[in-house]
Design brief:
Number of helices: 5
Low-confidence stretches: none
Helix content: over 70%
Distance between the termini: 25 Å
Structural class: mainly alpha
Radius of gyration: 16 Å
Number of domains: 1
Order of helices and strands: HHHHH
Length: about 140
């Protein structure tokens, strides 16, 4: 099978690792040392928290896209990726109802969505430039 973006196992490893990190950081209590470290450094202000959520879900969007692009056309992989990561962002926020010292937040959900859409539009724009350059 020919791939367009490189080494398949590496892409899948990055996807699993970053996905696990995103889920851990957004669903666990700050009693977990990694979560405490991130919330006390990056998430110590509202801007930092939003930037952290947008970055985390933006990179997750890129990782999922790179994994889906292995077996799907780009036209299908990008919207499917965005839907999957947006749903995951919503689910992680809802799961915070049951976590000690965590509460779901509309601002976090919007920041998650911002990261997804920035990467989605960037990938779409780059794809458009690539197709225009090839023709």
């Amino acid at each position: 099978m020919k791939t367009r973006f490189g080494f398949v196992p590496l892409r899948l490893l990055v996807l699993v690792a970053w996905g696990a990190l995103a889920i851990i950081l957004t669903t666990q209590s700050d009693r977990l040392p990694l979560v405490h470290l991130m919330t006390s450094t990056i998430g110590s202000t509202e801007f930092g928290d939003a930037l952290g959520h947008a970055g985390l879900f933006g990179v997750l969007t890129f990782a999922v896209y790179m994994a889906l692009a292995i077996c799907l056309k780009r036209e299908w992989a990008l919207p499917l990726t965005m839907g999957i990561v947006l749903a995951l962002g919503g689910l992680t926020e809802l799961s915070q109802f049951g976590v000690w010292h965590r509460a779901p937040s509309i601002s976090d959900l919007l920041a998650n969505s911002l990261g997804v859409f920035i990467v989605g539009f960037t990938m779409s724009y780059l794809s458009m430039l690539r197709s225009r350059h090839l023709s």
